[in-house]
Design brief:
- Helix content is 42%, strand content 18%.
- It has 24 helices and 21 strands.
- Strands 6-5-9-10-4-11 form a six-stranded parallel sheet, with helices on both faces. A five-stranded parallel sheet has the order 12-21-20-13-19, sandwiched between helices.
- α5 packs across α6, α12 runs parallel beside α13 and α17 runs parallel beside α24.
- The protein is globular, with a radius of gyration of 27 Å.
């Protein structure tokens, strides 16, 4: 309690005063309870009356959480389940879940916990049970990053979830799906054969609308009539893409490995378009703030065009806690022009739908990226699906331009793509083998101490996972302990990453900044789009970023990287992951591998590729047009 009172939530109290407050609170406690009046009196006696309400709210919150835990514990619930409910529902969590246990599925409580609780509470109803099971299946599909699931796998999942109570025949579960208004069963092409899949209806509708919008934009027949082409310095692939992309409005795709010359091509596309259409709009965007910043940096300080996030380009505004409305949409379109979306492998279906809804017919839309890298965090594999559909103009850049031809980073990229484990080592690519977690951690921190004192993008430690000694949390913690000799939360020079979206305050999940100044109740932080003052309300959305996960680093570039591959994170060791990791480095890459973790990652393809219908829908709609 003393530590809590002297912590970040009560910065003006201090440890000595906290000890005295705790002593006086104990004296006023009767039958294990404290009244609001007695708390106010104690805090007033110690000259901090304004903090009494905050403490009392925290105290009662703990009591209510404990009561909720006692209820859920009967059904094998955990404290994580308590927080999942108490966060959104607050003091209403207990009566809500006690009366309607299956409501818990909506907030991420495992179905078996809700099912057991319903029977214990005597509120079991078969219809509520099956509705909750269907919701749980839909959430499983979303967690997989998919928009559908093979019917056989869906039925198997439902049987597995129900196995702790009673087994249901497959015919009954199929009838539940068929009767549900939230699902549609249809066919999907898979390796030349058709298989039945289960689709949450809202996700299927969104994919249908994406396919319709993409093909509608691409049906524009008006030729650009560009007659002058500046092709100097372009390789054959780039020349073909330049002419193909600008031959007429619509959607086109440019792919290639990092360093294949996509940025050079984009610059040439923009200058050619601007010369032909000087009054038309030109905008560039990327899924994350750092990816947008990298594009802007590649254009130089004198360039008039600056990249932004896709969210910012379409004017994201706060709507509810977890959704947004957009200034530009189907009713209020973006100006006709040319739109480039870089790092498109990171696009999920939600933001793709929002962007396409805002695009005016007659515009040029160019998606660029590397389909071999990590997919979006949320639903879909948009870039990959559009390419594999074969319905859109697609141009592949095959030559390496970013690094010199003798760059081992570029050479090893090509080897990893081909699942060749015999990587080359030399001045710009190093493989360091370690036998223990301690050795991995010491090696990573030693590299940080050598290279990490300059620009935030001069050096970065990249990890497979968040938790554990060799995860980003463990490495960040040790670096912090060495940097902060006194007990402070933040200090100038600290590298931070935002972990949530706040449209009002102007930051997005994944934005990286450097702390410039620490004030009493705020931090001054430099981000890619300027300096922002973040008050204490932003602190829960912040994390340290001396090390970050490979997923978070996608779209960023650093002069040097240290890639940590721990064999205990076997499920994360995949070809896409290592491909993304090594190409974050521009000058030098250190791979720190525990045993043969590197080789296993190279050989491990994503066997469970996401199950989506966008590719099929594009083919179907193209065939019917």
């Amino acid at each position: 309690m003393v530590r809590f009172l002297s912590g970040a939530a009560f910065t003006d109290i201090g440890s000595l005063r906290a000890a005295r407050i705790y002593r006086d609170l104990l004296a006023k406690t009767k039958d294990g309870k404290l009244t609001k009046e007695s708390v106010t009196a104690v805090f007033s006696d110690h000259q901090v009356p304004l903090m009494a309400g905050r403490f009392y709210d925290a105290l009662t919150g703990i009591q209510k959480r404990t009561k909720l835990y006692e209820l859920l514990k009967k059904a094998d619930g955990t404290w994580l389940d308590v927080e999942a409910l108490y966060g959104p529902l607050g003091e209403n969590a207990f009566p809500a879940i006690a009366q309607s246990p299956y409501l818990g599925v909506k907030y991420g409580i495992p179905f078996p916990v809700c099912d057991r609780l319903a029977r214990l509470q005597g509120t079991y109803k078969e219809r509520d049970r099956m509705d909750a099971l269907c919701r749980y299946l839909a959430m499983k599909i979303l967690r997989d990053g998919s928009s559908c699931m093979e019917l056989a796998r869906a039925l198997s999942f439902m049987r597995y979830v129900l196995s702790s109570s009673r087994s249901e025949p497959e015919s009954y579960l199929l009838s539940v799906l068929l009767a549900s208004t939230g699902f549609i069963i249809r066919m999907k092409e898979e390796d030349g054969t058709s298989v039945p899949v289960v689709c949450p209806s809202s996700l299927l509708t969104r994919e249908e609308e994406i396919a319709t919008m993409v093909l509608s934009l691409d049906k524009e027949e008006t030729a650009s009539n560009i007659t002058e082409w500046d092709e100097e310095g372009l390789d054959p692939d780039q020349k073909k893409a330049l002419r193909g992309v600008l031959q007429r409005p619509g959607v086109s795709i440019v792919t290639g490995a990092p360093g294949a010359g996509k940025t050079t091509l984009i610059k040439r596309i923009l200058s050619t378009y601007q010369q032909k259409f000087p009054k038309k709009e030109i905008r560039i965007a990327a899924p994350t703030g750092r990816a947008a910043a990298r594009i802007s940096e590649s254009f130089g300080e004198d360039e008039a065009i600056k990249a932004v996030t896709v969210h910012r380009m379409i004017g994201a505004k706060p709507y509810t806690d977890d959704t947004a409305q957009y200034m530009y949409n189907s009713a209020r379109k973006l100006p006709e022009g040319l739109y480039v979306i870089d790092e498109a492998s990171m696009l999920d279906e939600h933001i793709t739908h929002a962007f396409l809804s805002a695009v005016t017919k007659g515009s040029y839309v160019i998606f660029t990226g590397d389909p071999g890298q990590l997919l979006s965090v949320d639903t879909g594999s948009v870039l990959q699906d559009m390419i594999l559909s074969g319905t859109l103009r697609t141009y592949h850049l095959t030559r390496m331009h970013r690094q010199a031809e003798r760059s081992l980073i570029a050479e090893n990229y090509r080897k990893i793509v081909k699942k060749n484990t015999h990587l080359s080592e030399g001045p710009d690519f190093h493989i360091i083998r370690c036998e223990s977690d301690r050795e991995i951690k010491d090696t990573a921190i030693r590299l940080y101490e050598k290279y990490g004192s300059g620009s935030p993008y001069g050096f970065e430690i990249l990890t497979c996972v968040r938790k554990g000694d060799t995860g980003k949390d463990g490495i960040n913690q040790e670096i912090l302990e060495r940097r902060h000799r006194t007990r402070v939360k933040y200090a100038p020079g600290d590298r931070i990453m935002m972990t949530a979206n706040d449209y009002e305050k102007g930051y997005m999940n994944g934005d990286i900044g450097e702390v410039l100044k620490v004030r009493d109740d705020s931090l001054l932080v430099r981000f890619y789009d300027g300096i922002k003052e973040l008050d204490k309300g932003c602190f829960p959305d912040m994390d340290y970023a001396f090390a970050c996960t490979i997923h978070k680093a996608q779209g960023s570039e650093y002069d040097r990287t240290a890639v940590v591959l721990d064999d205990s994170a076997d499920v994360m060791l995949k070809n896409r992951l290592i491909l993304t990791a090594v190409t974050r480095a521009k000058k030098e890459c250190f791979v720190i591998s525990k045993g043969d973790a590197l080789e296993r990652a190279i050989l491990h393809a994503d066997a469970g590729e996401r199950c989506t219908l966008l590719r099929d829908l594009l083919k179907e709609k193209e065939g019917h047009s």
